[in-house]
Design goal:
Elements (H helix, E strand, L loop, with lengths): L5 E4 L1 H5 L9 H12 L5 E6 L12 H7 L7 E5 L3 H9 L4 E7 L2 H8 L3 H17 L3 E7 L3 E2 L3 E2 L2 H14 L3 E6 L6 H9 L9 E5 L6 H10 L4 E4 L19 H10 L10 H13 L8 H15 L2
Parallel strand pairs: 1-10, 2-3, 3-4, 4-5, 5-8, 8-9, 9-10
Antiparallel strand pairs: 6-7
Helix pairs in contact: 2-3, 2-11, 6-7, 8-9
Length: 306
């Protein structure tokens, strides 16, 4: 049996939240269905944040009530505070995620709280999720570099990660929020967490500097078998200067498959999902491999119809 790698699709949340165009619930459901059609089975579907702060995420409670295949798909939602957590529970969400930035300034800019207070809130939410029988997922953002404070010490990432695990997080996602990581810095952080079961860790990379896949490879070498990605490279953090597109799902799936790792995804079907995302957002999309995948997909269709 081939080694399995989980691809957690974050386009419907992290991807859409930074777009100028706000999609309605039906349009968001259309995007999610296109992703499911590719074989994706883990999706961060939305966030329970204030619609005034992030209007692109308005209606997430309604969205969760209409999600297809709810019993078969690992859907998760971002919750910024206790109010968001309660709304997520009311909507039937079974997996909640929090975001803890690793620097003081980023927390102040992102959630208007200190690093200490944000850590306390995230830990409380992870404790609550554990008590309520929900899966708790915790992002450690700007884990490699902060746009305001520069390089993030690996010891800080380690300390925050362990605090979140102690509070009840089932998974910690080490996040390269502005795409500043490189394979050496990835190894330095993951080495500090090497005593943990690799199933407890995931990584989230942006391709701002073109090194996302190299960083995935470094993470694989440390046993990580779950990664976030976004269809067509859609998105980026709206509160982080320079945080352009996420790692494209099609690039990640293609590389992993070529390496002999199983993702369960149809890489050629991902071309169709990219097209759906482009039409819905009005934004040109596509990772490094997209044009090649389009050509190969067209060739396959020609053969099938010959």
């Amino acid at each position: 049996m081939r080694d399995f790698v989980t691809i957690n699709e974050v386009g419907p949340r992290d991807g859409l939240q930074s777009q100028g165009k706000t999609l309605d619930v039906n349009q968001r459901l259309q995007l999610i269905q296109a992703l499911l059609d590719c074989g994706i089975r883990s999706i961060e579907a939305g966030s329970f944040v204030s619609p005034r702060a992030v209007p692109q995420m308005a209606g997430t409670g309604e969205l969760f009530g209409q999600l297809p295949q709810r019993g078969e798909i690992a859907y998760s939602a971002l919750v910024p505070n206790l109010r968001g957590y309660e709304l997520a529970r009311e909507a039937g969400v079974r997996s909640v995620a929090v975001v803890l930035s690793a620097t003081e300034t980023m927390n102040q800019r992102n959630v208007n709280m200190s690093l200490e207070r944000t850590t306390e809130v995230c830990a409380e939410l992870m404790q609550r999720a554990r008590a309520d029988g929900l899966e708790g997922r915790a992002y450690v953002a700007v884990a490699f570099e902060c746009p305001f404070e520069g390089a993030t010490p690996p010891a800080v990432v380690e300390s925050l990660s362990r605090r979140l695990f102690e509070a009840g997080a089932r998974k910690v996602i080490v996040a390269d929020t502005i795409g500043a990581a490189n394979p050496a810095s990835v190894r330095r952080v993951l080495e500090r967490l090497s005593d943990l079961d690799a199933v407890q860790l995931s990584c989230h990379f942006h391709d701002t500097r073109g090194m996302a896949l190299a960083n995935v490879l470094a993470s694989l070498e440390h046993g990580v078998r779950e990664f976030d990605s976004s269809i067509g490279g859609l998105g980026g953090c709206p509160f982080s200067p320079g945080a352009t597109g996420n790692l494209a799902t099609e690039d990640l799936a293609l590389m992993l498959g070529a390496m002999g790792l199983d993702t369960g995804l149809d890489v050629f079907a991902l071309c169709d999902a990219v097209q759906v995302a482009q039409v819905l957002t009005g934004t040109p999309l596509g990772g490094h491999s997209h044009r090649w995948l389009q050509r190969e997909s067209a060739k396959r269709r020609e053969v099938q119809h010959a």
